[in-house]
Amino acid sequence: MQTGMIGPTTTPLSTGAVTKLASNTIDKNGFLQLLVAQLKNQDPTSGGNDPNQMVQQLTSYSSLEQQQQTNSLLSGIQGQNTALFQAQAASMVGKRVEVDGSGFNLQSGQSAMNLYLNAAANVKVTVKDASGNTVAELPQGTLSAGKSIVSWDGKDLSGNQLPDGSYKVSITATGQDGRAVAFQTSLIMKVDSVAFSSTGKITLISGTSIFSMENVLGISV
């Protein structure tokens, strides 16, 4: 007696059988084959043939071919633009850039952040680590409306030097009337390297911080 494992039942395919999936699209070659087949099988003596319809089909074929050529041309231009953008991004390595956002990117005991005030205000900046703990307090006093640069040497409340990395901030800006003053912030970073993705996205790396090229507001030496 022989025993064996019982597996799932399968239906054998006949030799040479080819399975094709249905498609809702057709390329210019398929369109031309259909048009040629129509010309071979139609009866020129039949009164049902519409010459206008034939002209429309030929026009559709020409439009399809032109559209595909245009798509190929646009793909080539897109590839050239991607290479150009990558070359421009690579030239930013070693430069300092202004990036939309808030916080300090501490590198070698140096970091700075831009602060834009809508009106003069008394400003206090609180620095926090990744866990949300307060590590430093930076009272700025009264700052004028417009752009100000807030610097931090990376020392904590006890004067100890903190390791390089990204630090969060919370900012309070109060006017003479005691009301909050609106403000915007941006980071100042030195670009260490640039990364590219297959989708064309460009990423800038500064220390442990990573940000998109789209967030860059300005470039300085």
Automatic annotation (TrEMBL):
One Pfam family cited in the UniProt record for this chain: FLgD_tudor
UniProt record, GO biological process: bacterial-type flagellum organization
Domain FlgD Tudor-like, chain residue ranges per copy: 87-204
Claim: Zinc-finger is one of the keywords in the record: no
Domain FlgD/Vpr Ig-like: 109-176
Keywords annotated in UniProt: Bacterial flagellum biogenesis
InterPro entries reported in the protein's UniProt record: FlgD (IPR005648), FlgD/Vpr_Ig-like (IPR025965), FLgD_Tudor (IPR025963)
Highest taxon of source: Bacteria
The family this protein is said to belong to: Belongs to the FlgD family.
Function: Required for flagellar hook formation. May act as a scaffolding protein.
Name this polypeptide is given: Basal-body rod modification protein FlgD
Organism of derivation: Candidatus Geothrix skivensis
Lineage summary: Bacteria, Pseudomonadati, Acidobacteriota, Holophagae, Holophagales
